[in-house]
Amino acid sequence: MNPAIVITGTGLVTPGGTDTDTTWDSVCAGQSAARRDLELDGPPVHLSCRVPGFDPAALLPTRQPWRYDRATQFLFAAAYEAIHHAGLDHRTWDTSRVAVVIGTAAGGIATLETQHRKLLSTGPGTLSPLTLTAYLPNMAAAHLALELGVTGPAFHTSSACASGATAIITAVLLLHAGQCDIALAGGTDAMITPLCAAAFTKMGALSTNHDEPSAASRPFDKDRDGFVLAEGAGLLVLERAAHAQARRARPLAVLAGHGATSDAHHPTAPHPEGRGLRSALTQALNSSSASTGDVDHINAHGTSTRLNDQVEAGAIRDLFSHTTPSVTSVKGVLGHTMGAAGAIEAALTVTSIDRGAAPPTANFSQPDRTTAGLDIITKSPRRQAIHLALSHSLGFGGHNTVLAFARP
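== Beta-ketoacyl-[acyl-carrier-protein] synthase family protein ==
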């Protein structure tokens, strides 16, 4: 039997704030971070949820933060918060027994776009020599390992918008295999760029509600018309329960189980019957030795797109037909942080368990026939004792990932 895995620290950098407490307060307030974005010069959709007031020179202890892509800067800030939250000191831990697993959908895409524009406009001689080390997707994990002196496993996972959750599952497997004693796992992305905005617009994935940006992201609502592009990072500190107990760390939650499947259906659309998500949910419950009746709360993927919310709502409604877990999507406030979303939402699910409350789904006012029947939290946080919670993450390519967290 595998040993219990606990979460002892969280770190967040999101459009709701540059730490866990500020982000938590933002999602509980239910005020959307979406704004018109003048930096998205060109794409027909120019809405975004940016991280406010992020000054890498002030927030990061590392020297020369300009060497890193914005996504890596976010990751550093989240990691330092999570390590401090867990009561760890990276200057004294056994570096060979620490793992770093980071998910990202696009790596340093802003760096790539900037340098490509330089190549086309002024020639190869003007390119930064740091282009590849800032852009390549593995480099967020590599840079964090370098920053912290970690010599245990350090690598990158990519499963689109499920990347951060996939990284957390991978970290659990490393802990179970005895490859590390501490794992820093999560996700980061900074995809608010002209290319990404234009590409998502071309696919019809983004909300076009320029008249009322704060109402643009509306998960599960009948008037939803797409997501709002966002950025950020989330990180969890995971340990075997015995290791955390030995150093007298307070567990915030137990990672009780997980599930991961592929739809094998379509490059972007989820399976219309949600078969992959249902299978991942079943796996997560089975590995938690739990049933649907044990689930108190679901932090849904809830992108605010027509197809995702329809399929996800149907899977929840059918699998939990004899019970009514509360449901929320924080994307109404934070927008869609892409490869970071699974980790950010996992951290917020852990916080819900630890604080005995679940945040509302911003901008949800009326379900349609496909989202009706869910107990969606609205308007204000709900105080509730959460013994078992699920966090869903879905991604282009048909990736379905479910994390199950329990009270310690």
